Amino acid sequence: MRKPEKVEGKNLVNTFNTLKKDKTFIKLRLPGKDYECLTIITNVFADKKKSVFMIDSPKDFQSEFGDLNEIKMHFEFTGKDNLSYSFRTSGGEIHRDEIKVKLPDFINREQRRKDFRLDVPPGTRLHVKINSKLHKMTVLNVSLGGTLVALIGTLHESEYKQFFKIGDSFEDIELLFPMDGKSFKSKIKKATIVRVVKGSFKPKNCCGLQFVAIDKNEEKALTKFIYKYQQQFLRKRIRLNL
Predict the structure, then answer these.
(1) How far apart are CA 155 and CA 133, in angstroms?
(2) Which of 121, 82, 126, 124 is nearest to 230 (CA)?
(3) What are the angstrom distances between the C-alpha of 149 and each of 116, 127, 189, 190, 196?
(4) pLDDT tens digits, residue range 108-164?
(5) Whole-Å CA distances, 206 to 38, 152, 154, 225
(6) Residue 179 has what pLDDT?
(7) What is the tens place of the pLDDT at every residue in 159-202?
(8) Which of 63, 86, 113 represents a domain boundary (last residue)?
(9) What is the tens place of the pLDDT at every residue in 62-103?
(10) Are residues 96 and 29 in the same domain?
(11) CATH code at 60?
(12) Would you state the pLDDT for residue 240?
């Protein structure tokens, strides 16, 4: 596996300004804490006096974590080149609805393509037949490359017994997204379990699915839906007109 490239100096500042201009979603994660969310960069200041950037403050962030001076932050985003970028920094200050964070020394650019995962509307479901029986799963997030799902009901003792394992495959899957009082459907020909998620805050049968076969028209429709939902998500979160 190739080592990540480092984005530094003027290229780093230019990258942050582009993220701000394009209102690109970035994922914020706090190492050591079961917390992650989506946000955007709202401003960038890079001169001799200070090198910081501002992000839209997630709801109740300060009340949940208190003093941000020593808090460690990990950020991820997907660039226009569809490559995965990440960086780490620490410390922050709350300013009204924004958080001021120190610019990192560099950004890691992975030489592999990655689909950005987006949280989905509440009530999003995945339907699949297992042993000729229809089963419903809760969809936790989705991208063009796959989805994170959790089994709900139907399988006996699903809360206590692990049913899924890496390598299992499902065919003729249907994703149902509630939106604007309607339901958007997307059909996936085949998906394979690539990871089983374990943790105290995750359901017992929670797994990551990779889409290995999807019709081109279905993929285009899913792309359009994800983009549309991103816009609505952003409007509701920060009241911006995109």
Answers:
(1) 10
(2) 121
(3) 16, 11, 17, 15, 10
(4) 998 665 556 677 888 899 998 877 888 888 898 887 778 888 876 544 444 445 567
(5) 21, 10, 15, 24
(6) 78
(7) 445 567 889 898 999 999 987 778 889 999 999 998 887 654 45
(8) 113
(9) 677 777 777 889 999 888 776 889 999 987 788 878 889 999
(10) yes
(11) 2.30.110.10
(12) 44
- Give the end of a domain, one of 113, 136, 162: 113
124/225 same-domain check: yes
So what's the pLDDT on residue 242?
Answer: 41
Chain mean pLDDT for the chain: 80
Please name which of 231, 225, 236, 226 lies closest in space to residue 23, comparing C-alpha atoms: 231
The answer on 124 and 79 residing in a single domain is: no
CB burial readout 97-117, b (16+ within 10 A) else e: ebbbbebbebbbbbeeebbbb
164 three-class SS: coil
Residues 225 and 129 in one domain: yes
Count, residues in the chain = 242
Q: Domain span at residue 73?
A: 5-113
Spatial distance between the Cα atoms of 55 and 99, rounded to a whole number of angstroms: 5
Residue-level pLDDT at 2: 62
Instruction: Report how many domains make up the chain.
Output: 2
Element (H, E) at 211: strand 206-213
Extract the tokens encoding 44.
């960038």
Residue 99 token pair: 């958080």
Are 60 and 122 found together in one domain? no
- Structural element, H or E, at residue 12: helix 9-22
